[in-house]
Amino acid sequence: MEGLTNWMQEHIAPLATKLGQNKYLQAISGGMMHTMPLTIGVALIAILINLPIPGVSDFLASSGLTAAGNEVIGSTMSLLAIYVSFLIAYQYAKDDGMNPLTAGVLSMGSFLILVPSTIALEDGSTISAFKTNYLGSDGIFVAIFLSILVAMAYGWLTRKNIKVSLPDSVPPMVADSLSPVFTAMIIFTVVYLVKWGFTFTPWGNIFDFIMQNVASPLMNLGATPLAVIIVYTVGNIFWFFGIHPNAVMGVFYPMMLLPALMANQQAYLEGQPLPFLMFALIGSCCYFGGQGNTIGLCFDMFTAKSEKFKAMRNLMTIPNIFNINEPVIFGVPVMLNPVFFIPMVLSAIVPGLIGWALCTILPIPLNPTIQMPWAMPMFISALLMGGPLYMAVVLICMVVSAILYYPFFKIADNQAYEEEQALAAEIAQQ
């Protein structure tokens, strides 16, 4: 174990640190985090219009509340690429010491320029409109890469002093608005030429090019139940050795999880089968109670003989139910504790495979438009997103986690109990 720990610290920890400090990944991660008020802010509306209560659902539909709620979701979560194009550029420019608002506006403007705005009808005529799929699931990859490129270009051009120089007498608000005009002209001209160039390709626009050649192959490779289990397992191993799993999740969320979520949302609103249903379901089976599914270990503490773990269960169980498990990882400790290495590695694999099997058998009507805060207990999130059957699956996986940790917990508990007895005997002799 010591040799493995040294190898991880020597080879993996520096790589994870570099990934965590990478300014591009930091901008993507920060921008994605800024979307949480948007996605979670409409969660209550999504829950309301999908209440499976006879009479209530009929009233919501007849009163127009359901239709209005779907439009709210369609204007927020289903158009997430627009918001992402602004927020990632904003975060990058902020970290880079540039004006974040200008960078965000330039990025969002560039994104909308690239979106095809002419739609051909069946009768041969055309109308001016945006296809919402390009503003949502089919546009998320373009939004991510474009926002970084535009923010980089804005910073580089600004440092080259390509800006309008105004006298000090001009109010700061006016100066900040006018100084990047030349930069905007250059960026928008380049984007315009890119848009024009793609009209000569078989794809017709950059969105279809990215979807067919980058996004779709990547999603087919990574947006699978097996990929979820592997990613969370790697994150658990990192966490065991004291390396924060954000190094893994920071890449997995924007590149795999978010596009799959948006594709599911779009299909759900259109009444189509969810293309990544199993991928979405398995996540809740691999991650509850924090990285490593340590809620099972907290449940095991209620069988403790030692005073150490009796005290810990009172302090750690409630936070762990709300997916906060740092007290368990560092307090038990689980990190770098050879006793808990095996259950930490298996804590995503075993519940994940069992959850996969159960979700394949059971008809779970997942509603991907309902998104809960990360601190919401996972069984409650499962109930709201997929109903009683999905909650039952998650609860079964929690029980499996407790069973998985139990024999290893008993080893740690017996060790702590023997130490306490020895200490009590020593004190009695004194």
Please sum up the structure shown.
The protein has 430 residues and is mostly helical.
Summarize the SSE layout with pairings.
Layout: H1 2-21, H2 23-33, H3 36-41, H4 43-48, H5 56-63, H6 65-75, H7 80-96, H8 100-114, E1 118-120, E2 126-128, H9 132-135, H10 140-159, H11 172-178, H12 181-198, H13 206-222, H14 225-240, H15 246-269, H16 277-286, H17 295-300, H18 307-321, H19 326-331, H20 341-346, H21 349-361, H22 378-429
Antiparallel strand pairs: 1-2
Helix pairs in contact: 1-15, 2-7, 2-15, 7-8, 7-10, 8-10, 8-12, 14-15, 14-16, 14-21, 16-21, 16-22, 18-22, 21-22
Shape: globular
Helix content: over 70%
- Strand segment tally: 2
Physical arrangement of strands within the biggest beta sheet: 1-2
Mean pLDDT: 83
Q: What's the total helix number?
A: 22
For the terminal residues, how far apart are their CA atoms? 37 Å
Could you list the spans in which at least 5 consecutive residues all have pLDDT below 50?
none
Overall structural class, as computed from helix and strand content, comes to mainly alpha
C-alpha Rg (nearest Å):
26 Å
Order of helices and strands: HHHHHHHHEEHHHHHHHHHHHHHH
- How would a crystallographer describe the biggest sheet? 2 strands, antiparallel
**Percentage of residues in DSSP E strands:** under 5%
